[in-house]
Amino acid sequence: MPVNLPALLPDTLHPVPGVRLGVTEAGIRKANRRDLTVIELAAEARVAGVFTQNRFCAAPVQVCRTHLAQGSARALVINTGVANAGTGDQGMLDARTTCVAAARALNIAPEQVLPFSTGVILEPLPVERLTAGLPGAVAALRADGWFDAAHAIMTTDTVPKGVSRRIRIDERDITITGISKGAGMIRPNMATMLGFLATDAVVSQPLLERLAREAADLSFNSITVDGDTSTNDSFILIATGQAGNAEIADDTSPAWLALREAVIAAAIELAQAIVRDGEGATKFMTIAVKGGRDRAECRAVAYAIGQSPLVKTAFFASDPNLGRILAAIGYAGIADLDVSQLRVWLGDVLVAEHGGRAASYREEDGARIMADAEIGITVDLARGQADATVWTCDFSYDYVKINADYRS
Amino acid sequence: MPVNLPALLPDTLHPVPGVRLGVTEAGIRKANRRDLTVIELAAEARVAGVFTQNRFCAAPVQVCRTHLAQGSARALVINTGVANAGTGDQGMLDARTTCVAAARALNIAPEQVLPFSTGVILEPLPVERLTAGLPGAVAALRADGWFDAAHAIMTTDTVPKGVSRRIRIDERDITITGISKGAGMIRPNMATMLGFLATDAVVSQPLLERLAREAADLSFNSITVDGDTSTNDSFILIATGQAGNAEIADDTSPAWLALREAVIAAAIELAQAIVRDGEGATKFMTIAVKGGRDRAECRAVAYAIGQSPLVKTAFFASDPNLGRILAAIGYAGIADLDVSQLRVWLGDVLVAEHGGRAASYREEDGARIMADAEIGITVDLARGQADATVWTCDFSYDYVKINADYRS
Description:
2 copies of one chain form a homodimer. By secondary structure, chain A is α+β, with helices and mostly antiparallel strands. Chain A has helices at 59-70, 88-106, 127-139, 146-152, 205-218, 254-276, 295-307, 309-316, 323-330, 363-370, 397-405; strands spanning 19-24, 36-41, 46-51, 75-82, 113-120, 161-169, 172-181, 194-199, 223-224, 234-239, 284-292, 343-346, 349-353, 356-357, 374-380, 386-393. In chain A, 33% of the residues lie in helices and 25% in strands. The mean pLDDT of chain A is 93.
C-alpha cells in the first residue's frame, strides 16, 4: 500500500498533442503482463534526457545517450522484465536491434529511437520476443494511452504513477503529462529508474535541456528508497511543440518561469510517487536540511539520515529513537561540523540542540509525530545559508520480503 | 544465531598478567542484567586507543581521548544501556563524574580512568546508578574476569565475543586476550563499537599506537553490518608490560613482527565475530576486491557491495541475483571504471567478465555457492595492484525486527 498516494484515474492524464502511446504483452520475462511500451513523438518534438551515473549503466542507456546527441528523437521503446544491464557486447547489439525494429515499424530512422529497459540485471534481453511484440504496440498507439503506459512500465511498483498539469502561456493551454516507475534500487544519481514527462509547449533545445537537469536535480535526484543507484535510471523531458505558443528561448521571460515551475512541480510529484510506493513503505519522510555552507553538504546530511537502516527501521516501528538521526548527521562526512550549534526537529517538535536532547522535548510529543504516515525531519546546521530536501520512506519487513523474492 | 561462531568457553580466555576485570548489575537501563564493567591495569601498562570519527561522538569518547593524551591509564569503566551520546554538556559532566568515582574506588587519579558507554543515544546517563555500582564491580576484580566482561558489555549481541592467543617472544610466553561487542550500528570508521585487546608484552608507546591503528584498519575498520557508523566506536589496545621480554621498540625486529601478526589476527577474529553475530545475520560474506589503483577505491567497491540492501537481501534469500553486485560496483564512485575489464567471482565461480555474464556461468553453480552460510565475493578491477577485504552479513527480517523493537 503506497503512502498517501491517491489512486491514478485514467481521465486525469491529459493527452499531450504530438505524443501517442501504445502497449502490448510481449512476454519478455513473464506471460500475461503488459511489458512493452512504444511512445511516438511528432516530427517537431524536442527531447532532453538525464541518465544514471552508474558505471555499469545499461546498454539502452548508452544507446539513448548516443541517439539523443545525434538529434531528433521520434520514438521511445520501453520494456520491463529484463534491464539489459551487465550484458556486455550482446546487450549493445540487442539495444540496437530494438531500435532497428522499432524504426521499421514506425517508418523512421533507427537513430530516432530511444530504447529503455528495466528489470533483472545480468540476464540477456530476449530481443526476438521484444521485436515480435513491437507491431502490436505500434498498432495500439493512441493519444490517450498515458494511463496504459503508466501500467506497462511497472515492475515491483504496486500502483501506476502519473501526473498531469495544465498552464496558460501566451493565452494558450499548455499541457504537461508524465509517468514514472520504480520502487526499489532507488537512489538516483542524475535521474531515476524511468521517468517520462511531456509537454506540448514550444521551447528551445538549450532551455529544454537545462530544464531536464534542473527538474531531475530537484525531484528524482532528491529521493532514496534503499540507497542503491540503478543501472538504468533515465529521465526524459519531451516538448512536442504543438501548443502554438511563441518559442520559449529567453530564461528571463514569464513564459519560461511558468513552464519551469510547472515542469519541476510535476517532476517532484512523480518522484515523490516513487517514494510513496517504495518497496515495503509504510511512512513517507521529508528530510529538510538548512543552514549549510553549500547544497552538497545539506544533501549529504539528508541522505545520511534518509539511507540509515537504523533510522528507517525506527520510523517503521513509529519509535522516536531519535539518537539514530544524530548518529547519521555525525557520520555524514562534514569534518568540521560543530554539533553543539545544530538543531533537529521532528515535525514541529524541537528534539535536539546544544549537542543533546532539547530541554523542552517530551517523548510523548515525539511519539505523536511518529504515529503519522507522513513525517518531516528538519535539521538546521547553523553554519550557512544553503538548504536541500530529500524524500524517503521507512524500512519494513516487506522490503526484505520483496527483495528476497524478486526473481522468483 | 550467529554464523559459524563457535561458542565462547570461559577457559579459552587466558588471563593477561597486569589486567583484572570485574562486573556488576548496576541497573543502568534494565534490571537483572550485568551492565557495568571495570578493567584495572597494572601501573606499568601502556594503552593506545582508536575512536569513532562520528562528529556526534559520545561524551566518554571525548573524555577518553583527553585522558589518553594526558598519559597513564590505570582503569577502564564500561557501561551498557545508555550510550551517553547526544547528551551535550550534561553528558560530559556525567562522564567526568564516572571517572572521579572510579578513581576514588581504585585509589588512582580521575585522569587515569577511561570511560566507555554503549546503548541508546540521546538519553541521559543515570550516573548515580553507575557510580553506586562501581564498588561492586571493583570488589569483583579478578584476573580471569574476561569471560564475564565479554558478557557484561553486550547489548543486542546474542553471544559474547572473545579471543585469546599465546606467542613466544624472547623465549617467554606472551598472552593476547581481547573482547568485543556490537551487532548493529556497525560500520566503524577508525574503530568499532567496543573492542578491548590486551597483551602482557613490553612494547614501546609509539609502536603500541601504530599497532592499534594498523590492527583497527585491518579488522574493525573493515566490517559493516548496516553502514551506520556509531557515536561510541572505541578500540583499545593495552600492553601491561608484565611478560619480561626486552622492550619491543624496533619495527624491524622479529619480536615486533611476531607481536604485530598475532595482535592483528586477534583483532580480525574479534571484528569478524561482530559480523557473524550481526543483527539478524544468517550469512557471513567476505568481499575481496583486488586489482585497484589504491586501497581506498578497493574499499569503496567492497563497501558498496557490502552495504547494498539489495545485495544483502538477495544473500538472505540465497538467490544468486548477481546483477545487484554489478550495480553496486557501478555506483561505488570510480568515475573512470572500465566495466568491460573487471571480473567478478562468487566463491570459485566466475560470474561476470567483458561487461556481462561470463559465458561459462551456470545458474546452478551460483545457487550452489549461495546455499552456504559462508560466502566469498571476489572482484578484480584490473586496473592496479591494490586490494582490500571487507566482511559483512546479510539483511534479514530479523534485522528489521530487532531494530524496530530495540528500545521497547
